[in-house]
Amino acid sequence: MKKLLFALLLLIGFSGIAQTKSELQKHYEAFYNQMRLQGDVDGVINALTHLNVLSPSQERKDTLAYIYANDNKHLQALNIIGIEKVDTDSDLAVQVKAISLKALNQPKRALEHFEVLNTRNPNAYLAYELADLKIQTGDNTGAMTNIDYGISNAKDDMKYAFYERQQPYEVPLKAAFFHLKGLVKFNMDKTNNIDAAIAIMDEALKIEPNFNLASLSRQALITRKETPAETETKE
Question: For the chain, which ranges sit under pLDDT 50?
Fold first, then answer.
């Protein structure tokens, strides 16, 4: 009799827990939808975190990581989905790993994830990211391949944002590629390619005369050309 009573109480307990979990999940699903409507990022993160505890899913983890990354909380994003290259990762997970590792100044690790994205869906924007990262990691030949692709495939309405000024600004993506091409040209031969690099910067400025970063790079090249001995001594 005691055993039967204990089993009955245990069954009731499990039923209550299941009901409570189901109710909590419904609550946080409703809470998540409401926070989305209100545009409350912290609320969305809170709701998704609870939902992942109550009913874990890779899709929710990827979404939560994306929201963290979009809010410039890149370490938190990577803590959720990791940094490893995983063949079964969704496009969203790969994107989060790529942009977060780049933001955390990990160009080599970011590069491998951008390569995956480019394999799945090649486009001019990904070509720019790849070229930029390859310049940072010293792969000038690989960068030039991505740059040539980008110049050929960048449309007139494609823009790229820069943040070296206090006020961010956008330039045509093709102009941004010409700026990178000038940098690569110079990197390939810092003694003999200065004039060619300046000419390429001029191409970028022809497309966008107010391209501040290209103007700064061009001026640095001119300074290098005019005072080569002093510049080399400093190096």
Answer: 2, 4-18, 231, 233
